[in-house]
Amino acid sequence: MFGGSFNHKLDEVGRFIVPKKFRFSLGERFVITRGLGCLLVLTTERFELIKAQAQGLGNPMMMLFNPEIGRLYRHLFGEMVETSCDGQGRIQLTPELRAHAGIDKDLVMVGVGEWCELWGTDNWEAYKNDNLTPEQLIKAAAAALGSKEGGEGSDGVPSAGSAL
């Protein structure tokens, strides 16, 4: 399980030191690919699950000619890298991946349970300000738990007896 956030600076060739607690959980080899405004750092096992689910979206012909499936494939696989930490615990990010996440020099590595995310510090601050407010978190919890408006009180909190 990945948790916590760590601020880092890239060196002159685009490397940074992965926190020791994350290095152990990532294992010998892991995958970095594009997320939504950030980079995803996934164990090879977690990436294999995602890959299998992506492959289940359609038959080979659909994967080639369905623009929606193709878009997902290009996003996940187009710039992904399988990598490992060097002897000093560093990984190098490609210029394409850095550009996607808005990483110039400073970055934040955030543990989010089953994977880690890499964010440019400005993008991370903007994301937190826009998406991690109490209102947005309540809305996200309601959507994740499948709450219906009828089962909530006027303050958005589930009322007694409502199904979560």
Question: Features of this protein?
Answer:
two-stranded antiparallel sheet; alpha+beta; 40% helix; 164 residues; 7 helices; 24% strand; globular; 6-stranded antiparallel β-sheet; disordered C terminus; 8 strands
What would your notes on this structure say?
It is a single chain. The protein has 164 residues and is of the alpha+beta class. The protein is built from seven helices and eight strands. It is globular, with a radius of gyration of 19 Å. The two termini are 25 Å apart.
Count of DSSP strands: 8
Radius of gyration: 19 Å
* Regions with little confidence, pLDDT below 50 for 5+ residues: 150-164
* Helix percentage range: 40-55%
Overall form = globular
Q: What is the typical, i.e. mean, pLDDT?
A: 89
State the helix count. Answer: 7
Q: By helix and strand content, what is the structural category?
A: alpha+beta
Strand content: 15-25%
In sequence order, what are the helices and strands, one letter per element?
A: EEHEEHHHEEHEEHH
Give the biggest beta sheet. Answer: 6 strands, antiparallel
Q: What's the short version?
A:
This protein has 164 residues and is of the alpha+beta class.
Sequence-ordered SSE layout with sheet pairings:
Elements: E1 2-9, E2 15-17, H1 20-26, E3 30-34, E4 39-43, H2 44-55, H3 60-65, H4 67-77, E5 81-83, E6 90-92, H5 95-101, E7 106-113, E8 116-120, H6 121-131, H7 134-145
Antiparallel strand pairs: 1-7, 2-6, 3-4, 3-5, 4-8, 7-8
